[in-house]
Amino acid sequence: MSLSLSMPAPAVMPAPGDAPPALRHLLGIRGLTRSQAEALLAEARSWKAARAGRLQALSRRPLAGRRIVTVFYEPSTRTMTSFHVAAAALGAEAVDLPVSRSSVQKGERLDDTLETLESLGADAVVLRHPQTGAAHYAARHLSIPVINGGDGTGEHPTQALTDALTILERRGRVAGLKVAILGDIRHSRVARSNALLLELLGAEVWLSGPAAALPPAGAFGGARVTLNRDEALEGADVVMALRVQRERQARGLLPPPGAYRSRWGLDARDLERCSPDVVLLHPGPVNRDVEVDGRLLEDPRCAVLQQVANGVAVRMAVLHTLLGQGGGRSWSTCSSAAGW
Amino acid sequence: MSLSLSMPAPAVMPAPGDAPPALRHLLGIRGLTRSQAEALLAEARSWKAARAGRLQALSRRPLAGRRIVTVFYEPSTRTMTSFHVAAAALGAEAVDLPVSRSSVQKGERLDDTLETLESLGADAVVLRHPQTGAAHYAARHLSIPVINGGDGTGEHPTQALTDALTILERRGRVAGLKVAILGDIRHSRVARSNALLLELLGAEVWLSGPAAALPPAGAFGGARVTLNRDEALEGADVVMALRVQRERQARGLLPPPGAYRSRWGLDARDLERCSPDVVLLHPGPVNRDVEVDGRLLEDPRCAVLQQVANGVAVRMAVLHTLLGQGGGRSWSTCSSAAGW
Amino acid sequence: MSLSLSMPAPAVMPAPGDAPPALRHLLGIRGLTRSQAEALLAEARSWKAARAGRLQALSRRPLAGRRIVTVFYEPSTRTMTSFHVAAAALGAEAVDLPVSRSSVQKGERLDDTLETLESLGADAVVLRHPQTGAAHYAARHLSIPVINGGDGTGEHPTQALTDALTILERRGRVAGLKVAILGDIRHSRVARSNALLLELLGAEVWLSGPAAALPPAGAFGGARVTLNRDEALEGADVVMALRVQRERQARGLLPPPGAYRSRWGLDARDLERCSPDVVLLHPGPVNRDVEVDGRLLEDPRCAVLQQVANGVAVRMAVLHTLLGQGGGRSWSTCSSAAGW
Fold it and tell me: pTM for the full model?
């Protein structure tokens, strides 16, 4: 198996040719080619280096004058802030449209809201929505790029790219690694996007969780599914614990916190089953001492804060790929000072 | 009747002389002269052209260093966002002061809040408030420009200017047109500002709605009031449906949604009574299939999204007129980079 | 007693040497030296002059590319806005992380939240938190500067610096003045920071309030404590009324509003006991006719709005001191246009 991502040291500035052709939206990992995914990761590494190294690339404000609108029907401070930081780093302006799950219930139509945004002058939309498929729906109704910030039990592609970048930095490659994802797999868009992306990049993905939380066969690509947590952990190079949704515990769909912890929570002993240089991931925010023993969060094998930092770089790559070099609306490319 | 607004192609940049003299605030259409209104509309057209044409006018960031504060005691994502986008397009910074209707109930005094804002360094305030007259009250207490973003059942002047600009673009003129406004007229600041502005510009305005929703004589200038909806629609060049406030339906002050739709909702058959090139307007957000048949929203005669785009241009014109060329505080005009 | 703050007219731009050495955080007045406090006040005066005089200092955007994050577990529109305005005036970007007191109750760990912020790329954090000591706790966990925006019954240092600057402008000096602070002293971080700062600068501080609201001996430095309000007011050069927390009245810990007003509220007759050029301060927002007779707010001796304006200048000084000239993260100093 080739080490697909043992690419040469990336050029600091992505050359135009690096951009995957014809990527108009980022709706999911499903639909991405391996070369598109690799190009996004390479560009993310470049932006991270540019931010760390005070490079000219950023002082040119490559997305100056562009406005990115975040529309989050489910709150997520971390993901939303990450997009806002990424936009600002590229010189773009990010604004949040304050909406809520209750807007969905009041029967406001998503396409009406989004078309209004486009008329107001948005250059791209980042959408989080409780309904699976919402981002695809939005992309069909809008002429500007749509980024899926999480749709129901569908996908969360920027999180998966973030996690892949973190693995790449820690282990030098993705291909050939054994990755265990633990928790409420079936309802997790993070698990789905990660399983699809890591498999695309050549990893061997194992999924494990309570019986009711395991996915139907084939729903997560070719990932192996097991009720035997130890089998998933055995020799794993990467372990990803998913966040427990407390409301699902309250409804009896998952074991209550204490039982969850003793059965599925990760502690130092569990990591001993894994590869000695295992990487511990969690999409955050962590419920300490539920999914992960709090002490493990200080462990050098834990990469949670690195994931946060990489989330910014990945979102810069996505925004720049979709909006840079003349992508999106043309009128707003005229001047780095134009605003909108 | 002269075609008052069949003005020559507007200069791309408004010359200083275009600005209406002595417009310190925009509190309502009442109090505006026809030439002031026409100047605002001409400037809005110019800004729209400037944004579309990548012109230098915007790259100079004419309001750089100015800060516009929005204070919305009633939520309105669309209007507030429109002001923020307009401010950013001119290089100004817009911030929202998070307040709520509950602040009014807690007895916080509006003038205390506004004086604090002025001391903090705001250059202009956009105020939405449930009490009629709130913007006039604010203007008496502040030395910076006040823009009425909607006051109780009073006025909503930027919405009316937006609608007039849309009519102008669609029909080439306002004077001499028959305009029908339908719905809960009596309590609608949108209806009031539109009736006053369109009459000022030479249109013939008809108002129609449920009996309890019709205004007392003279309350809306010289507009004609009728219970006979068909009479209002007959040959109309413009039809504007007002948004139904669901809480007023819940309190029995308006027919419930189903009854409202069948009696007052607009559908394709209704438009057949109108002029062949009728323009359908709605201030948004539309309650689909209540005020307007959902299918009409895709009809080319429907200008709802054009209204949204024009709202930005109109607000740019208003902000630039009130703050440009040395308006507002003098200290903040010093440098395009000064911030505040 | 020397007039410690009768400093020479400050240079418009603070010279590098003015910055107090080694001020990494601003956690409280306790821990500041007199020269550090004086340097911050001198720098605040310079920034105020720079803003008023259209000076080049601001057009250089000295904190361009830096991002300040405000994290307010207790809402405070005024303080938060003041920090945002100060940041923007220096060219930095300010974002608010939306949190709430309920986040504290849900057991989200403060250090997890703050470490996430740092990973996202924040250059400084302004923290308001209901627990005393929260800012010190944050400073121990973060490598970026922490500014205490108010911690429980601990300190509120930027408010005290604001008040000292206002006294300085009104009276030309702080040293040797008699300052009376009235109200719920014991639980007031504003009172504590003011007592410590004004004493540090050489003033004679008197504290007076209801018996249950007086502090234990020594808790507020060397300030004199008295139940006799008239004794505190007699000949006072400065009178500061504290804001009443209505929830504490509701719980019976303070007299109810009517009783509070008649016993502790300030009116024109009270000011007659004071120095003829007494300065009336209040941290705001004022409960009119509770702590202060509403008519006094229009009195020229009342400096409440001047306090608001000075709050911006003080926060500019604090941010510039902590982040300017290479403070904070080094990577973000590279370019005035870099964003983050």
Answer: 0.82
